[in-house]
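Tip: read the tokens left to right.
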């Protein structure tokens, strides 16, 4: 090819690309919607995952746009994205007008990446059918069935901490709590004794950590697949890392085959899904839920693991971080735990744990100040006329709900950086807008496993507080710095606290 012709072609392509991106970046201006200025070529995502955690990025945008309209605009790469700024609009998106926003628009490629086909990511009728199958596995009765398993692991956790507390040692509590929740989920989801409290380098623990570790490039790849799923399908791209998928698919195949061959029944999540897979029903319930494939079973069990292991351990980590800085709150929680245990003869029964109301307030305030998922995604399924405005959210537009920004809005929560569990007394909850606290989402797509997550967190905190005291030490990260590359909120460098025996 002639060199001049080649250069002209390259320049033409660059100019055309520049004009295309420039036109795309004019979308919100042409709509008359307040927006944050995009940075080429990442839009609002330039620093995310590299120098800033997503919670910081989206909260900065929320604060810049708040008060200008009921929603504002931003860009993920060149894709326009809506950020709701009004809690009534949020109510419409979650519940009242759910039919417009029932999908998350996340990347799913079940052909090349079977574990991507889980409830959190599926859309449309597939999501609805699967939700109907899974909801009966998360009833209070099923949670009560798994409670004894959690208590057994929590007792091991309590015993593990004993020699550390006797020596008043400093401990990286995030790692220990992650091992505790790994053992809980391993038992409740897979029926496997992971023993990661005793052996922290087990394969199960190592793979679990890998799920949430992302480099800046991997972080952007996830957003790229979300924005351009058709390209991902064409090039057979996977959302999950190969070593993660291979491990869980192999583990589940071996476990289900062993259980079927030896007719093993356990009170765990996997047993419930195997019942649905084989008969389309749960034992003792004649409701026909419809059968599921092994791949569907694998994807839901994988979701149960990733949703239950990291979120609960991070919530407990942040709760203890706050309690270490607020000894009066910690003392009040410990007194409640001990009084409830005394009432139940020292037994952590299901009913006893449900009576720990102040511990629940601490969990709720922790999820207010440190929501593990800092933003939620929805996608608009059809043109949506925004009530009370002239605006229309067009079909296919992404909606990014700023959970962290709302939870730290001083107009909703005065002095939002202050940790105050009394924000969640029944009286104070009634004073706030019902959609001002959304760590699990809301509406039909609210987290299906929230009961399990809260139960696991409550049990873990109660076991620790009943016997031990946490304090800050020289390595405690004050102020808190988040790991930018983590997809959920996690302290950079871990969480160091001092552990003592409680009097």
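Filled-in amino acids:
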């Amino acid at each position: 090819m002639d060199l001049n012709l080649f250069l002209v072609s390259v320049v033409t392509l660059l100019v055309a690309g520049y004009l295309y991106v420039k036109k795309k970046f004019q979308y919100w201006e042409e709509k008359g919607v307040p927006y944050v200025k995009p940075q080429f070529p990442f839009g609002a995502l330039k620093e995310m995952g590299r120098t800033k955690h997503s919670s910081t990025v989206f909260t900065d945008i929320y604060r810049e746009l708040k008060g200008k309209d009921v929603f504002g605009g931003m860009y993920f790469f060149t894709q326009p994205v809506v950020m709701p700024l009004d809690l009534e609009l949020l109510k419409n998106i979650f519940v009242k007008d759910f039919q417009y926003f029932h999908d998350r628009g996340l990347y799913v490629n079940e052909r090349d990446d079977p574990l991507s086909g889980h409830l959190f990511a599926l859309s449309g009728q597939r999501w609805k059918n699967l939700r109907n199958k899974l909801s009966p596995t998360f009833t209070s009765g099923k949670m009560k069935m798994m409670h004894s398993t959690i208590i057994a692991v929590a007792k091991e956790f309590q015993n593990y901490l004993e020699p550390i507390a006797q020596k008043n040692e400093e401990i990286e509590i995030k790692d220990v709590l992650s091992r505790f929740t790994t053992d809980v989920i391993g038992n409740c989801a897979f029926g496997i004794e992971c023993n990661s409290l005793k052996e922290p380098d087990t394969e199960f623990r190592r793979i679990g950590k890998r799920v949430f570790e992302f480099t800046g490039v991997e972080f952007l790849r996830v957003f790229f697949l979300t924005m351009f799923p058709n390209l991902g399908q064409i090039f057979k791209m996977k959302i999950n890392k190969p070593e993660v998928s291979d491990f869980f698919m192999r583990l589940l195949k071996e476990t289900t085959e062993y259980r079927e061959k030896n007719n093993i029944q356990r009170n765990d999540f996997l047993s419930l899904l195997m019942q649905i897979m084989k008969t389309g029903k749960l034992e003792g319930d004649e409701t026909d839920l419809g059968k599921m494939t092994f791949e569907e079973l694998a994807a839901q069990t994988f979701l149960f693991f990733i949703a239950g292991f990291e979120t609960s351990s991070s919530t407990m980590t942040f709760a203890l971080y706050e309690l270490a800085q607020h000894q009066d709150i910690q003392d009040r929680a410990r007194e409640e735990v001990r009084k409830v245990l005394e009432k139940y003869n020292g037994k952590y029964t299901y009913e006893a744990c449900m009576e720990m109301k102040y511990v629940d307030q601490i969990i709720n305030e922790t999820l207010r100040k440190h929501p593990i998922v800092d933003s939620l995604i929805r996608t608009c399924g059809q043109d949506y006329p925004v009530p009370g405005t002239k605006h229309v959210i067009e079909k296919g537009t992404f909606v990014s709900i700023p959970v962290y920004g709302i939870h730290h809005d001083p107009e909703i929560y005065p002095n939002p950086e202050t940790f105050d569990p009394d924000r969640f007394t029944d009286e104070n909850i009634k004073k706030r807008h019902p959609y001002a606290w959304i760590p699990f989402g809301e509406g039909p797509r609210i987290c299906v496993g929230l009961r399990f997550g809260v139960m696991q967190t409550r049990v873990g905190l109660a076991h620790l507080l009943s016997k031990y005291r946490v304090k800050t030490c020289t390595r405690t990260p004050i102020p808190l710095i988040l790991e930018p590359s983590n997809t959920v909120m996690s302290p950079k460098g871990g969480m160091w606290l001092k552990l003592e025996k409680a009097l």
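The CA atoms of residues 364 and 470 lie 19 Å apart. The longest helix spans residues 294-325.
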